Structure formats: C-alpha cells, structure tokens
Amino acid sequence: MIQFVDVVKSYEQGNNALNGATLQVEDGEFVFLIGPSGSGKSTIIRLITGELKPTSGTVHVNGYNLERIRKREIPYLRRTVGVVFQDFRLINKMTVYENVAFAMRVVGAREKEIRERVPYVLELVGLESKMDRHPNEMSGGEQQRLAIARALVNNPSTIIADEPTGNLDPERSFEIMALLQEINNLGTTVLVVSHDQNLVELFGKRVIAIDEGVVVSDGLEEEEDIYETE
Q1: pLDDT digit string (tens) for 93-126?
Q2: What are 216-221's contacts with CB under 8 Å, separation 24+?
Q3: Which residues, 6+ apart, have CB-to-CB distance to 192 below 8 Å?
Q4: Smallest Cα–Cα separation from 164: which of 184, 192, 198, 185?
Q5: Is 57 helix (H, G, I), strand (E, B) or coil?
Q6: Which residue positions in the chain have pLDDT lower than 50?
Q7: Residues 6+ positions from 96 with CB-CB distance below 8 Å
Q8: Cys staple from 141: which of 11, 84, 130, 172, with CB 3.0 to 4.6 Å?
C-alpha cells in the first residue's frame, strides 16, 4: 500500500513541491496519476522510492515509514517498487538478457535464480526471442517492454511507470498499457504517471489528479483541463 497523509516537501530553494498532499493506493490497484508540469508528480515518485524524505506529513510504502526509514533499509524498500522510466535507462552495451539479469545481480540474486527468472519475465513481456539483441537494435516499443521487464524481474509488489508511452506512437502506447494491465491482473499494484488523456480515458481506471502540490480530484472521471502537455 502507498499512503501519503498531509505531505509537504520543501526544497532548499524555498519552494514547495508538495503542499499537503493526501492519497492512498491499495494493494493490487491500477491508478493513473495526472497533473501539469511542476505539479508534484515527480516528487511523489521520488518519495515512494525513498530518494527523498517528506518535510512534514507521513508517507508509508509497502510497510515502510519513509519519515523514519533507515539508510540500510532503503534497498529493501526499493525491491518492493519497480520503476519504469520514460527514457528507458537501458545499458546499450548489454544484451536484453544481460540488462534484466543486471537488475537481479544488483540486489544480490544467485545465478541459478537469475537463469530461471529472466527468461520467464522476458516471455511475459514478449521478448523471449530477442534475448541476445542489444537495446539499440530494437524499436522504441520493444525498448519500453525491456524496461518493464527489468522493473518486474525482482518481483516487486508495486510498479511505477513514469510517462511510459511518452516516446511511443498510439499503437505502441496501447500495447504498453495493455501489458501493464496484464501485470496488474497478476496482482501487482500499478501506478502510471501520464499526460495521455486518450489512454487514461480508454482504460477507465482510477485517476488521481494533482496540481500545485495537492490532490485536486480522485476518481474515475476527470475534467479535460487537468491534462496539460509538458
């Protein structure tokens, strides 16, 4: 579960990225997080992953209290949260298999476990036939699937997808969202940050809208002026 209660996050420059944000995402939910550029979405992601601590208020993520979390506990928190970035952040000198295996080695997985887990996850995202390819030999949609596989490989309870369709055409965007829906159907909590109004409306999921650091609406249907391209 992800829970923010009256969260304020101030930066050294004196500006507040969050101004008392309150939201809750239950285990197994699929939720869109929307809002204009500068509204606080990126700060929410950084708080969830333990990169930041709140200035005030409470943040709980998958059993961890982010105000009191110890530095040595942060790697364990991050094993419960897989993040898919808009710019993929793949390692071009590594093959598809090696990119995913690397994510397991970072957390100390055994080689036997890696050999069993990586092919399974690549099959889940439809890349089982491309294990020996390099990212720069793949399409944008395939690279995004690889980024999702890497986020999934350590079996996190939560996936955060930060603008996962921002660099893709409409057909590929739908495929990526359908894949995230399939992952959610398997029990993983999915939080998607998106500016794509059409996709948000098409998938008909819960939408949390944030603006100027506060949650301004929370439900299944939102007004069009909430959406704004960066």
Answers
A1: 999 999 999 999 988 889 999 999 999 999 999 9
A2: 218/23
A3: 30, 31, 32, 33, 160, 161, 164, 177, 180
A4: 192
A5: strand
A6: 222-230
A7: 122, 127, 130, 131, 132, 133, 134, 135, 138, 146
A8: 172
SS3 content of the chain, % helix, strand, coil (to 5): 40, 25, 35
Give the H or E element holding residue 112. helix 111-124
Beta strands in 35-137 (DSSP E): 56-61, 64-65, 81-84
DSSP string for residues in 89-108: ---TTS-HHHHHHHHHHHTT
Radius of gyration for the chain, computed over Cα atoms and rounded to the nearest angstrom: 17
Per-residue buried b or exposed e for 32-45, using 16+ beta carbons within 10 Å of the residue's own CB? bbbbbeebbbebbb
Cβ neighbors of 120 (< 8 A, separation 6 or more) are none
- Which residues contact residue 186 at a Cβ distance below 8 angstroms, ignoring those fewer than 6 apart? none
Query: How many angstroms separate the CA atoms of 164 and 168, rounded?
Result: 8
